[in-house]
Amino acid sequence: MAPHQSAPELLTLHALRLMGVAEPAAVARRFGLDRREVDDLLLDFEAYGWVYRAQFAGTGGWTLTEAGKAEDQRVLAAELAACGGRDEVLRVHADFRPLNAHFQEAVTRWQVRPLPGDDLASNDHTDHRWDDRVMDALTVLGRRLIPLDTALTEVLTRFAGYQQRYAAAMVRVHRGEPGWVDGIGIDSCHTVWFQLHEDLLATLGIERGTDG
């Protein structure tokens, strides 16, 4: 069976679920959608009560209301049932869970490097051996995403690209840009990983924090 291709309406709504807050251009880029169609859909969704404009410290964008989150959940469930892919997505999620624990541990080591008398000292990235070990762990985790990314994309094409985005962030890290591990507002390793986790949870209808 060919992978299922999601409708622009679902992708526009779901992009906000994954990104939290985003401008229309970013929403369009997330799934390669037409910008004008995204603009029109967001205005329609605002009329339905599914999205609203949010402002945070001088920046802002569109975000989901609770009704919008519920609608996203509804259409995702309907899509997964229609394509018959729930068992495969569940299998991938089961394989992802231990990787997620290792990723969280690696990011913690990237952010914290214990010192005598201070177990929670911030990592100033001057200990290159420490950072190299963390980068090695993050690189291995990126490789282990490849079969998961492939399996998911064979069910739903909207899952495509997570491993490539993660690998691109790791290239920046290896070039000496440490913010690409856990930076906010950029396509860092943490951003990509968080979105993949959210995508799996949303697709399966699992609340974050309840999947062990």
Question: What do these coordinates show?
Answer:
The protein is mostly helical. It folds into two domains: 8-80, Winged helix-like DNA-binding domain superfamily/Winged helix DNA-binding domain (Arc Repressor Mutant, subunit A, Orthogonal Bundle), CATH 1.10.10; 86-204, no CATH class. 65% of the residues lie in helices and 6% in strands. The protein has nine helices and two strands. Strands 1-2 form a two-stranded antiparallel ribbon. Strand 1 and strand 2 form a beta hairpin. Helix 6 (128-153) packs antiparallel against helix 7. The chain is globular.
The backbone outline, from C-alpha atoms, is globular
Number of helical segments with 4 or more residues: 9
Low-confidence runs: none
The biggest sheet, with number of strands, parallel, antiparallel or mixed sense and barrel status, is: 2 strands, antiparallel
Strand count: 2
Q: Estimate nothing, just give the exact number of structural domains.
A: 2
Average pLDDT metric: 94
**H-E string:** HHHEEHHHHHH
Structural class: mainly alpha
- Rg on CA atoms, Å: 18 Å
The N- to C-terminal Cα distance equals 31 Å
Our estimate of the beta-strand percent is 5-15%
